Amino acid sequence: MVNGLKLPKEMRERIEDIQAGKIEPVSARDAATVVVLRDHARYGLQAFLLRRVVSMDFAPGAYVFPGGSVDPRDGEAVLAWSGPSPAEWGAAFKASETVARELVCAAVRETFEETLVLLAGPTEASVVDDTRGEDWEADRQALLDRSLSFGQFLDRRGLVLRTDLLRPWAHWITPLVESKRYDTRFFVAGMPDGQRARDVSTEADQVAWVRPAEAVERASRGEWFLMPPTLATLSELAGYETVADVLAAPREIVVHEPVAKIIDGEAYLVPPEGKEEHYPKG
């Protein structure tokens, strides 16, 4: 049995072409994703997931965390910033200060765009308590169409970016064989008091608050489609009882990049070292 994810037959030719130098792999775009967590009185630790619509080019039908690509304008903006500096985030993720700033801003911006959860507040010790209403929706739409930068959004509303509410968690890179590739840093954050996560993304058709262990179980039964990085993250989080436990957990960020190989004539995605349990045996 092969420890890996069996790929469609057409991927074999692409693997061979890349290995032969006939085609160049696509460059991976810097991206950020945020695992928003909450403590539920009955169910314990829960994570917020969105199911991507089946018409999406990348990961259709998969349950994912909020996130997306960076906006280069975020790396140049002068922001009201509370918490670890871009240099500290860069050290955690082994990135330049500019890229680290872009990643943190993308993490907070994309989470707001897709869920209305906003990790920012009028002071360094507060967060906004409600992001519903027509004025917030207008700003969200402006962020989506990039007519408003994230820095402009925060400045206009007089908000401080609360980077102290985030923690670094993981780093995954899409395999070379894929036609769309992302260099994604994973963050974790607790759900701010007074806010509500909502289904506002046009890229999702369903959302769920779920215990990490339950999400892993549903994936194992074939009920939910979870990509390996999402499955690995949820499996790790299943070992914690509260949001505070997760945020206090020490993390050494290691880059994980699955590799596409041809094994016994078939194309497989082979897991990175230490993540074998998150890939089916085919």
From TrEMBL:
This protein's record includes keyword Manganese: yes
InterPro entries in the record: NUDIX_hydrolase-like_dom_sf, NUDIX_hydrolase_dom, NUDT19
CDD domains: NUDIX_AcylCoAdiphos_Nudt19 (cd18870)
Domain of life from the UniProt record: Bacteria
Cofactor needs: Mn(2+); Mg(2+)
GO molecular function: hydrolase activity
SUPFAM superfamilies in the cross-refs: Nudix
Metal-binding is among the record's keywords: yes
Keywords, alphabetical: Hydrolase, Magnesium, Manganese, Metal-binding
Domain Nudix hydrolase stretches: 27-232
The protein's name: NUDIX hydrolase
Lineage of origin: Bacteria, Bacillati, Actinomycetota, Actinomycetes, Streptosporangiales
